Amino acid sequence: MGLTETLDEYFDVQEHGSSVRTELLAGLTTFLTMSYIVVVNPAILTAIPDVKPGIAIAGYSPGQVESMITVVTLLAAAVATFVMAVYANRPFGQAPGLGLNAFFAFTVVGALGVPWQTALAAVVVEGIVFILLTAVGAREYVIRLFPEPVKFAVGTGIGLFLAIIGLQAMGIVVDDAATLITLGAVAADPVAILSVFGLFLTFVLYARGVPGSILIGILGTSAVGWLLTTLGVVSPDAGLVAGSTTTTYDITPLAGAFVSGLGNVEAFSFALIVFTFFFVDFFDTAGTLVGVGQAGGFLDADGNLPDIDKPLMADAVGTTVGGMLGTSTVTTYIESAAGVEEGGRTGLTALVVSLLFLVSLAFVPVAAAIPQYASHIALVVIGVVMLGNVVDIDWSDVTNTIPAGMTILVMPFTYSIAYGIAAGIVSYPVVKAAAGESEDVRLGHWALAAAFVVYFFVRTSGVIQSQV
């Protein structure tokens, strides 16, 4: 039996109405559409002194840390997607998720002052909780526990949060003493000018459905910046090229760092961090699986994805392994829909994605050479796409509008995904009770709301310092 026949038989390719060739092409398509994360995830998670919070390792430059996270990103994505392929037999790609990596760096490590090792410990704990809940079939209970308008609003809130982070890195949005934020000196700043060019180039490619449009936009923008600097059109200190391209494949300072983080835990704050990681990961994954499943015709008559516990388990295992290696939460990518639209129907598509992530380890130095403004183009593009989630919210019902609106608004304005979710959860039972719809409120809703009220008080009253 040849390789083609073996793959066909193992993944039941023909029974799913596909072919090995179609699955291979679908896997390549999915990889191209989601491969931008290899550049973006390290850029978000790496700390830059006096610029942004994140992972900083004593004795290593930001460039070296970024290359470590690039290696870890590739390994975590490869492992998670491999489990999706051989265990769940679904054509879904996985990698560290946008939004949760921003929550990790800007909220947990930055705003809360939590050591990055402890943040990784929270990721690992969240992954283990996810595994246990999936193993015992508690998915439905967890889904019912959270208010529906909050679930639908999270994606849009994260989209706005990602967009403002990206626009800041690109020099398009800057801080202002009078208005907090304002438009930057775009026409006078080479970084902002090139960022605008790169952003619209990416939008054009994305709108035309070009596979890998985001990655092409990032690489193209970086190449133009390098060319302008090399030709002397702009000065080397204009910021169009990466400050350092020092790379390393040694991930030992990251791998296993979560263990030391477990020894520096304050119970309530740590639980909140784990809860937020879990909440966003669980519902983002569930929503993505259903959305991509619909595109592939996988859903049953009731709109459910059969055997959804298997891809959920793959996601949970990926998150746990990713946290142990040294990256934020792994999730299933909506970009998997591109491969499904190309005809991918089985885990063979995912296997191709997994192998391509491993092959990409040879190109870590390229990823390290991408400047921050170019990599953050992806945040704005994905942020804009995520705004489409608002259509799932019933805006005609004020008891949905208020918690959904609070979730969406509080995230970018407080620079915190967790605070946005908390604001929505607190407001939901209050407005439901006020509208005389107490029958829609569970005891769990009130318990979560009360816990968050206490947390907000503790965090903002000065009772404790901003650290865990």
Automatic annotation (TrEMBL):
Pfam families: Xan_ur_permease. One of its GO terms (cellular component) is plasma membrane. Keywords: Cell membrane, Membrane, Transmembrane, Transmembrane helix, Transport. The keyword Chloroplast does not apply. It is a multi-pass membrane protein. The chain crosses the membrane at residues 24-48, 68-88, 95-113, 119-138, 150-174, 180-207, 214-234, 348-370, 376-395, 407-431, 443-464. GO terms for molecular function: purine nucleobase transmembrane transporter activity. It is found in: Cell membrane. Belongs to the nucleobase:cation symporter-2 (NCS2) (TC 2.A.40) family. Azg-like subfamily. This is Xanthine/uracil permease family protein. It comes from Halogeometricum pallidum JCM 14848.
